[in-house]
Amino acid sequence: MTLEEVLDQIPINLQFVDRNGFLCYLNKAAALRPAKGTREVGVNIHDCHAHPESLENVCRILNDFRNGRKDPHYYINKEGNKSIMVPIFGSEGEFTGVFSYSHPAGYPKPDRTF
User: Fold this and answer.
1) How many CA atoms lie within 13 A of 7 on its CB side?
2) H helix runs in 9-109, sequence order
3) How many angstroms separate the CA atoms of 54 and 8, rounded?
4) pLDDT tens digits for 39-74?
5) Which residues fall within 8 angstroms of residue 27, CB to CB, at 6 or more apart?
6) In sequence order, which ranges of 20-101 are alpha helices (DSSP H)?
7) Cα distance between residue 112 and residue 48, in whole Å
8) 3 state DSSP class of 79
């Protein structure tokens, strides 16, 4: 089983966007999320966000990372999805992109506790 096959089984939206805003990876859960336009590898995120305020926030976050922010961004959108955007830096310290994951707030809820 490949890493991609493993990530496709996770019911959380996973994606990687490069420093220029182009979608480089998304798992099946992320591909199924509604989007303003086509959500596929190679598309610029400017073409994926349905709400202008959402796009504005994503652009601000990317700029924070381009300017050296190392801490992840956390937020909950109006639909109740919690998103975490983690900056990825290369071996020379250069910002290379953002790994993000999102899921409904409070999800996943365990069916049992230990």
Assistant:
1) 15
2) 28-31, 52-66
3) 25
4) 789 988 887 766 777 788 888 999 999 999 999 999
5) 4, 7, 8, 10, 13, 14, 15
6) 28-31, 52-66
7) 36
8) coil
Q: Whole-structure pTM over 0.85, yes or no?
A: no
**Rounded CA separation 62/67 (Å):** 9
Class of domain 3-104: alpha beta
Distance CA 40, CA 45 (A): 10
Query: How far is 100 from 25, CA to CA, in rounded Å?
Result: 10
CB 8 within 8 A of CB 27: yes
Q: How many residues does the chain have?
A: 114
Distance CA 60, CA 65 (A): 9
Nearest residue to 12 via CA among 104, 93, 111: 104
Domain ranges of the chain: 3-104
